[in-house]
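Late entry, evening session. Most of the bench is empty. Finally got around to the prediction I had been postponing all week. Sequence below, unchanged from the version circulated by S.P.
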Amino acid sequence: MVDFDSNEPALEAVFQSIDPVRVRMARDLLQQGGIEAFIFDDESSRMLGSTSAIESRLMVHADCIDEARSRLRELGFTE
């Protein structure tokens, strides 16, 4: 059984898109600004041919969500 650290902040989606390139660009921009970001569902989306059935999601730690959303808005990444 895996022992999860309950002090670790949860991850929340800050951006999602059917275009995996946009999601990767948004992740790279956040990481350059010092915000740790993770891509979820990227492989699932590609497996289905990048249909709108499964969007790639950009996840950040919950305690960084407001800053991440603000930066993404400034850079033109809106949902």
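Two things to note before I forget:
The helical segments are 20-32, 42-47, 65-74.
Strands lie at 11-17, 37-40, 56-61.
Will write this up properly tomorrow.
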